[in-house]
Amino acid sequence: MFAYIARRLLLMIPTILGILLVSFAIVQFAPGGPVERILAQLQGVDSGATAHFGGGGEMGASGGGDFSSKYRGAQGLDPKFIAELEKQFGFDKPAYERFFLMVKNYATFDFGRSYFRDVPVLRLIKEKLPVSISLGLWMTLLSYAISIPLGVKKAVSDGTRFDVWTSAVVIIGYAIPSFLFAILLIVLFCGGSFWQIFPLRGLTSENWPQLSLFGKVVDYFWHIALPVTSMTLGAFATSTFLTKNSFLDEIRKQYVQTARMKGLAENRVLYGHVFRNAMMIVVAGFPGAFVTAFFGGSLLIETIFSLDGLGLLSFESIVNRDYPVVFANLYIFALLGLVVNLLSDLTYMWIDPRIDFETREV
User: Fold this and answer.
1) Confidence grade of residue 358 (pLDDT, cut at 50, 70, 90)
2) What is the percent of the chain where pLDDT is above 90?
3) Neighbours of 268 (CB within 10 A)
4) What does the buried/exposed string (b/e) look like for 146-158 if buried means 16 or more CB atoms within 10 Å of the residue's CB?
5) Transmembrane ranges (predicted)?
6) Quick one: 88 and 155 in the same domain?
7) Is the pTM of the predicted complex or chain greater than 0.90?
8) Contacts 24+ apart (CB under 8 A), 105-114
């Protein structure tokens, strides 16, 4: 067990390095950058990433040379000013030196400061965590609370009308993007054309500090009800069918037939024998499902409901070429993904002690 965990932890190091290296190399050739954005703002034009540059791009820039050929919008500006901008953003160093410096700092979770917000990146991420945790946690719990009972019922009722029409509903819900559900809920319940029941934006109300503890709890759930609902409607399809198929696979096994022949009640057979074995793969996948909900698929929901979370932060950072925030989010997401994969394996082994990862090659 400990040898397996140690091997997995050691394997995370080259994996993280590979992810950072590939991403860093791609950025060298990506159009635009922080210096390009500053120059565009000085010229009074759109600061979007529309310019291309040679020699490895802005991330590969050095302190000298023909600046007008390196950056669009640099014409007429003092080369010393542009050199100062490059030094400010750290682009006066060679790319390989900046990469190794980044890896060294990231090893101690030192992510530097945001280029355009002028705050430490780690503090910026911590400020956005409550929104992403709220969406990811409640969406995962709610989707599992729906999918597990529904999957069990579908397995027991396999082939019946209930199974057929619930499958149709689940598939339709899975096929419709969550942001369309979000827009529909806003139109229906946020004063669009029908009822004004839920707030349109934010995670809490403006008078949050003045509310009592009970009032804060109510206000919190009042604000996240529609975002979580819109994300959950399309999220439980996979776990529902996974639960159903797991139950069907277990129900057809010999030990279930033996339990029934002994005269055990159907509920005892299902929940005393089948449930534990069928739920292994579903429960073991909970950490991964949470991280997926935590970091993925929430960008549009955060934008629609004006929730300032990690999804929106990552998108804005990419658009603005705020590289410290972009790489910090990438590093944290990749690291958590690897840790969660390990936790999923350990959870699976905890649920079923017969599984021994110690004998498996990593």
Assistant:
1) low
2) 3
3) 12
4) bbbebbbbbbbee
5) 9-30, 131-152, 164-197, 220-243, 278-305, 325-344
6) no
7) no
8) 106/20, 106/327, 106/328, 106/331, 111/324, 111/325, 111/327, 111/328, 111/331, 112/324, 112/328, 113/324, 114/317, 114/322, 114/324, 114/325
Cβ–Cβ under 8 Å, residues 306 and 202: yes
List helix spans (H) across the chain: 2-28, 34-43, 67-70, 79-89, 95-106, 121-156, 161-175, 178-189, 213-232, 237-251, 254-261, 266-269, 275-278, 280-284, 286-295, 299-304, 310-319, 323-351
Tokens 């919190």 correspond to what residue?
220
Domain-located, residue 106: no
Query: Which range of residues forms the domain containing residue 70?
Result: 2-97
Cα atoms in the Cβ-side hemisphere of radius 13 Å centred on 353? 0
Looking up tokens 């000298």, which residue turns up?
Answer: 64
C-alpha span between 189 and 200 (Å, rounded): 9
Query: Encoding tokens for residue 124?
Result: 């910026």
Give the C-alpha separation, 194 to 341, whole Å: 44
| The two structure tokens encoding residue 322 | 């705020």
Tokens found for residue 161: 């009308």
Cβ atoms 228, 136 nearer than 8 A: no
User: Do both 92 and 130 map to the same domain?
Assistant: no
